[in-house]
Amino acid sequence: MKIFVYGTLKSGQPNSKLFDNTKEGRFEFIGVGVTVEKYPLVIASPFNIPFMLPVEGSGNKIQGEIYEVDERMLEVLDDLERHPVFYRREVIPITAEDGSTVQCGCYLLCDFRKELLELPFYELYDSQGPHNLNYVNPTDRKIVLNDEESYRRFLSSVKNVN
Residue 144: pLDDT above 60? Predict the structure, then answer.
């Protein structure tokens, strides 16, 4: 399956090393791409995580990378993104660098807090970008997301939690 990544999984970003472990599955870099439609891409939560929101037609055409992944790597990515509970993998059209349109899975934040739409929208994510919202790696986070209450507080910062 083809996957479009726009955030911390891109080359040179904090989670790109996931692709270095071939025991976790196989992948092939296809090239850079941009969403056909506009979407809001925001940086939010206490950890400055990039989120692409499923509001087609709002925001910017998002720049990212296209990968072909096998079933095992897809499972690893789904686990990292907590699909379908946290992010939801949806198939969206991406314009590849050769101008062709490619259908790719993309992780979108489902059930997000509407306040996220009031944040600045980006078209290109870089964890060390000029936004001065540096991504906080999981090992550097002060709260343990495996603790139920801490995880609920984190979730409530970006998602509608009942």
Answer: no
Burial of residue 19 (number of CB atoms within 10 Å: 0-12, 13-18, 19+):
buried
The first and second tokens of residue 23, run together, are 């025991």
- Of 37, 68, 81, 97, the active-site residue reads 81
Sign of CA dihedral 113, 88, 96, 93: negative
CA distance 109 to 81: 9
Do 17 and 76 touch, CB atoms closer than 8 A? Answer: no
In 3D space, the residue among 27, 22, 14 whose CA is nearest the CA of residue 104 turns out to be 27
CB contact set of 39 (below 8 Å; sequence gap of 6+) = 52, 53, 54, 55, 56, 58, 59, 60, 61, 62, 108
81 is an active site residue: yes
Task: Taking residues 144-162, report their average pLDDT.
Answer: 72
Q: Which residue, 29, 127, 39, 117, is CA-closest to 73?
A: 29
Q: Which amino acid is at 144?
A: V
